[in-house]
Amino acid sequence: MDYSEFDKPKSNCGVFGIAGYPSASLMSYYGLLAQQHRGQEAAGIVTRYQDSQNKKIYFFSKKGLGLVSEIFDNEKIFIEDLKGNAAIGHNRYSTSGSNSFFNVQPFIVKYRDGNIAISHNGNLTNAHILRKKLINEGAIFQTTSDTEIILHLISRSQKKNQIDQIVDALEQIEGAYSLLILTDNYIYACRDPYGIRPLSLGILDNSYVIASETCAFDLINAKYIREINRGEILVIKFMENNSEIIESKFLNNIPEFPKKCIFEFIYFSRPDSIIFNQNVDKVRRQLGKKLAEEYPVDSSSDKKVAVMSVPDSSNTIAIGYQDQLRKMNINSKFEIGLIRSHYIGRTFIQPEIDKRKLGVKIKFNTVKGVLQNRDIVLVDDSIVRGTTSKQLVNLIREANPKMIHLRIASPPIKYPCFYGMDFPTSEELIANKFSGNIEQIEKELEVDSLKYLSYDGMISCTPEKDEKYYCTACFSGKYPIEIPEDIKKNINEE
Ligand code: SF4
Q1: Cβ < 6 Å from ligand 1: which residues?
Q2: Which residue of 39, 167, 231, 412 is 20 to 30 Å from 346, comparing CA positions?
Q3: CATH number where 386 lies
């Protein structure tokens, strides 16, 4: 677990699915392992198995709280407990519903057309309204998660065919969703009309695989094919050892432009993934370069400026930053000045602030010889509360650098996310605490200078270089999907 994530927004989920593969559960395990960064509180896998004798179909499930490796901790699980040739899996961080076992996905239900399991990455913005309506109509909920609503809507649909039932359900929900739905004979891969969260299709031998991020494909040697389009419902039929795409349906009223989450590029996704048809690494380097263009740091002595990242999330950005300084003939060098321990485990994932404060020295140490008497440029992707940044600066200060300049590769975060990322309340965000006054934040963090990448600078690093293709709401307050007042209130109270 990355220490820096204590003071970062949490991605709520990662999903993985495989259709028509003999060891589907084992592949799903690897797929979830590769996407562990998208959710560390809980994980689960559901498999579909057909008995060769009586031809009956069974759904098996294993879920738990904790990291993927803690839940799936022995081989027997894959061979005996999770038999089957199709599977979906889920990594979870709770943004909707509490972190109880009942909310761990994939959820499974049985309805008139057989079994359904579902994995969801995102957040529904009309969940409260739909839940209330369903409860008034007599529905019984087993979880507090908005994902369960989708199952109710599918099951209550009056449409005859399963695909139409799913379309019917999706037409009623609003918000961000990248979904995998496993039924007796199909996997449905679905993405919301704005394409807020990523979802990609790949192939392993003759079997289709789907994942939030393509780093999951790399681990199992699957080949990336394409992104699931926004508003698309891709129907994958599976056989014993293979699968085929039999249909691709689209929802009505797909907006003209997508609203891809720009934060996926800045922080959430792994740099070795392709999301939104783009290498994350490429965008992150660009963010670093742009940041250096806007806010370079020159040396105050004959010693080279030490450019360093907060490992691991801002490594790539810091490389881009240093590349640009070099091009500008600034006397600087990329240095590994912070060493991160990778062996902390789950202890520090808990969202209580006291534990967060404890963390810094356990998680990071400085390389004193590198920092001493140098001008340091500490490059980070974002600042949320500022608590982590402050402790890191204090830690670096102990190594006696000459100056510490903090450079942030995104604009100040001022607004919460309602589309599947867990942000602290508006009041807790450091940019709001100091009413956006950068000098005051600089003082609070005790750095010699603090600079954030400009909004236009951030947009210029995206492939389209145009804000109309992106959700930027946490920076700009421009929410592409309207947020009902009661949801705003509810999220702030959670
Ligand atoms: S508000 Fe928009 S840009 Fe910010 S994290 Fe949420 S989806 Fe991404």
Answers
A1: 196, 261-263, 417, 419, 421, 471-474
A2: 412
A3: 3.40.50.2020
